[in-house]
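Hi all, long-time lurker, first post. I run a small reading group and we've been trying to get comfortable going from sequence to structure in the token notation. Rather than ask abstract questions, I figured I'd post a concrete chain and ask someone more experienced to write out its structure so we can walk through it together at our next meeting. Sequence below, copied exactly:
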Amino acid sequence: QVQLVESGGGLMQAGGSLRLSCAASGNIVSINIMGWFRQAPGTEREFVAAMRWSGGRTTYADSVKDRFIISRDNVKNTVYLQMNSLKPEDTAVYYCAQAGPTTRMTEPRMYVYWGHGTQVTVSS
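-- Answer (accepted) --
Happy to help. Here is the structure in token form:
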């Protein structure tokens, strides 16, 4: 099993930046892909960004491309989401998740382990 704990959420004004962290523990060797998703009230969970643990290939949702950056620290077993130029529509609970080998990095159902989420609120 893999345990995931997110941190770094909070309240920010539009145009500001936040960095989310997701610390992984447990069966780290099983991690192939780490992803970030978000869910606003009344909406489905949506893909934000993902990274292959080996090699570092990344992919982003169009809505966050050029504003958000996913990165990792292999020593700390931590994945980050740097969020810049925040917009009110970025307001959501952000979740990190872990998937095994898959090419479907944007699909929530491919992810096995999930954190509990961290709230991000962007005011206008």
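A couple of things your group might point at:
The first strand starts at residue 2 and ends at 7.
The radius of gyration is 13 Å.
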